Structures are given as structure tokens and as C-alpha cells.
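USER: For my understanding, would you kindly supply a protein sequence with its C-alpha cells?

ASSISTANT:
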Amino acid sequence: MSYTESQWLYFHDKFITKVKMINGNRCMVISRFKGKSREITFTCTKCSREYTLLASTLLKPWFCKHCSSKKERSIIHKSKMEMERKQALYEFHKRVEGVFSIVATKSDNLFLLRCMKCDSTKWYRVTSFLKLNQPCSQCRSLRQSRGSREIIGFLKKMDIEFKTEVTFNGCKNKNKLPFDFGVYKNDKLICLIEYDGEQHFKEIEFFGGKEGYLNRVTNDQIKDSFCKNKGIPLIRIDYRNKNIIEKLMMKLMPLLED
């Protein structure tokens, strides 16, 4: 997937920030970031030796093999781990506040949370919780936006066979990318439906800000390409459309009549 120059500049700045958080001033990046699995050139700020390694190398504690000591590596590594733990715990409590209540805890990394919206409870590890856009699995399946609920209501009313969160082995960006709905006829896939909410068109902090938005743009492009290559009709419904069901009927009915 190709990115624009401005997107790469954003990813580069993000990478540099992470490197400094993890490795402080021990190294200085001197080439442009082009992905974690691509090589990047940097220098040791202490002895000025130059290295060209995978960018992912700098996303964990790095030490110059020529001038760092074992004691220094051990102290810095422990300090870094403790800093990451405290930062993760801070972010966890920040996201939990006003959305979940803490029912119980087994450690500073495992919490039983109750969702204030649907009252469901579940154990969460801090690191896993922070990776989720919508942590509550119950709300994730029921929370569907107003548009998604309308689509579900229409499909049920018309007795149309469908499934939610449909995935395919060949459609992924690290992990499989779920389509909102798959419509079937006699157990055969007829088309896929995506309801594109507000977060698909602009940056929203709750959905990951700029980075989350860019990831969604990439994922949507991957889905579009997958459907085009496989010859699977993909119906995209824009949340800004006031007549969601009318638009859906116009595109869906001809496919069901074939």
C-alpha cells in the first residue's frame, strides 16, 4: 500500500518520537523511516559509529555493541520497562474513567471492569485493553451506530440472510479485516456491506486520532481492492446519507434478484 509524502513524514516523526521515548539520546536517526520492516541508518551518539539495521530494532532498547556496558544496559532496560508499565497504567485509567467501573483487580495489569453503558463485566489486561478501539465486546456488537442498526433492522424485516463481522483469509492488514455485513442467498455470498461512520472521513480522538484515521483509510483501500479482485460487490453506505435504507435497497435488490 502506497502512502503520500505527507503521510510518510507523519510516520517518520511518529517513529522518531517512539525511538526517543525508548532509547533517549543514545542514537540519532539519519535516514527516512519507510516502515518497521525496512532498514534505517542511525549513529551512536556516544562513539559516532554508524549502523544500518531494521527500523524495528530501535523500537526496543538498543545499545551500541562497541561502547555500552552490561551494567548500563541492565539499568536502562529496567528503567525503560518500569516507565512503560507506568505509562500504560496511566493511559488505562484515563480511558476507563467515565466509561467503566473497576470491580476487582488481581494485579496492576489485570482488572475486572463493568461497562457503564451495558452493565456487562469482563477481565482485561492493561496492554490488551489499550489496543482496542471499543473495549467492551458487548457494546461492540450491540453499539452499532444508528445507521448499522437501521441496516440490521431492514435486513431482518426483509428476511434477508446476512452475517456480521465477515472476514476472509486474503483480506488483511496484519490481522483479518472484518466487513460489517455479508449478504447471502441460499448460503452463497451475494455482496458485502460497509457502513462508513464519521471516523472513516476525519480524525476522531476516541478512534485513534490521526493514526487511527490513516489506518482506516488504508484498511478501506485494502477492502476495496480485495472485493474488486474477487469480483464481490461491495456496497458502501455513507453515514451522511439521510436515506440509508433507500440507497441500500437500490443497490442490494438487483443483486438479490439475479
User: Anything to note?
Assistant: The longest strand covers residues 188-196. The chain has seven helices and twelve strands.
